Amino acid sequence: xxxxRTAILISGRxxxxxxxxxxxxxxxxxxxxxxxxxxxxxxxxLAKAKTxxxxxxxxxHKIYAGREEFERSLQLVLEAYRIDFICLAGFMRLFTPWFxxxxxxxxxxxxxxxxxxxxxxxxxxxxxxxxxxxxxxTVHFVVPEMDEGPIVAQAAVPVLDGDTPETLAARxxxxxxxxxxxxxxxxxxxxxxxxxxxxxxxxxxxxxxxLAPEGPA
Length: 217
Ligand code: GAR
Fold this sequence. Notes:
The protein is globular, with a radius of gyration of 17 Å. It is 34% helix and 23% strand. The protein has helices spanning 15-24, 44-51, 67-80, 97-102, 123-130, 165-188, 208-211, and strands at residues 4-10, 31-38, 56-58, 85-88, 107-111, 134-141, 151-158, 193-195, 198-200. With 217 residues, the protein is α/β, with parallel strands linked by helices. Helix 1 (15-24) packs parallel to helix 6. The chain is built from 7 helices and 9 strands. Strand 4, helix 4 (97-102) and strand 5 (107-111) form a beta-alpha-beta unit. It has a 7-stranded mixed sheet with strand order 3-2-1-4-5-6-7, covered by helices on one side. A two-stranded antiparallel sheet has the order 8-9. It starts with a strand and ends in a 6-residue tail after the last helix. Glycinamide ribonucleotide binds at residues 10, 12-16, 89-90, 110-112, 173, 176.
């Protein structure tokens, strides 16, 4: 099987990264995690990636004059590792249209809300403030507009009476760890494909297979 050489881009703790690395250990998984790349050299996820035996590198955005200079360095590293596909997993930098164009149709992001609701930051606080009863997470292809792009997978969670932003975030995060490996599997295997603004062949959140963990082999 030709596995899709995938890079995970992180800025922080990397729990979604862990879930993707774990899923990709399965021999039948259609993607391999060939690189973890961070814009922050001190991101805790980098050490975890190395411990898991995955190549890890940092390109510190602070040392570049502008966003495109930073992105050209990222691009060189991605090319050096012969990367075919990118998963953003808590990567907290916005990209220029130039970088997004390089990876059009080949870059996924996970967002901690049911898009198109709650784009941007502080999604759990805002959901609680609005009193919504259903919240969740979304995996989508990256397009130039922030937190937009064809949706591959979503999972919904209930908002409970006693929830704080932290308890709600934890409930959503558990679902993130389930749907991201699933979404990458669907895309890397060619089952899910973009048509216009939709992804066909993807799953509805009610599909039982969505709940099946992409656990260790
Ligand atoms: C995740 O909740 C992810 O959805 C969110 O950051 C967290 C990263 O956690 N991403 C965004 O907010 C992107 N705008 P992790 O480093 O443990 O995967």
